[in-house]
Write a structure and sequence with these properties.
Elements: H1 2-22, E1 35-37, E2 43-51, E3 55-60, E4 82-89, E5 95-106, E6 109-118, E7 122-128, E8 138-145, E9 152-162, E10 173-183, H2 185-189
Antiparallel strand pairs: 1-2, 2-10, 3-4, 4-5, 5-6, 6-7, 7-8, 8-9, 9-10
């Protein structure tokens, strides 16, 4: 009787493992990436954020909070921190992920960071110069990545594109994020 019970448990585990292997629990849809080869090496990918329609959450210590009813933590350490979460789109205007922009001050030094998450591909963390340069571009370094973006370095730029059209219900403008990925040298040596 005990042998039959143990055999039943082992067979049940084997069948469950076989079913999970044959029918994956999570099969995320992956929008085809629109990546171009950069002239001097690496790959370039451009993301867009329609403002205000793609803003999911916005908050800060002395700022209006979106969505209404969201409570921003009342902690002194978060006094200079503000955060926005957005849906991000590709050049075909398909939503392909989410991004979070966080700004803060460390003393007199402003800090601006982006985290871009592409569900079927991974995430990148970018530390950006908060002061815009020529043409309104902010430039940042890709500091870390996960999954297929783990072996990448490079840069990402941010710029604001105002909507000049007279189309009703058009967004106020777009944030353009252009990421340039370069494989890490130790990855290439292997």
């Amino acid at each position: 009787m005990i042998k039959t019970f143990i055999l039943g448990i082992l067979l049940g585990i084997a069948v469950a493992a076989g079913v999970l292997y044959a029918v994956p629990v999570v099969d995320q849809y992956r929008e085809a990436s629109i990546i171009s080869v950069a002239p001097n090496g690496g790959n370039t990918e451009i993301f867009y954020i329609n403002v205000p329609s793609d803003r999911v959450m916005s908050g800060g210590h002395d700022q209006a909070v979106l969505p209404p009813g969201l409570e921003w933590p009342d902690d002194d350490i978060l006094g200079s921190v503000s955060t926005e979460i957005f849906k991000i789109r590709n050049a075909r205007d398909s939503v392909i992920g989410v991004a979070a922009r966080t700004s803060a001050r460390e003393g007199d030094v402003p800090v601006l960071d982006w985290i871009v998450h592409l569900p079927a591909r991974g995430s990148i963390y970018v530390n950006m110069n908060p002061v815009a340069g020529e043409g309104g571009y902010r430039v940042g370094e890709i500091r870390a990545g996960s999954r297929e973006l783990a072996g990448m370095t490079g840069r990402m730029t941010e710029r604001w594109l105002s909507d000049e059209s007279a189309v009703p219900d058009a967004p106020a403008g777009r944030i353009e994020l252009a990421a340039r990925y370069i494989a890490k040298q130790e990855e290439l040596a292997e």
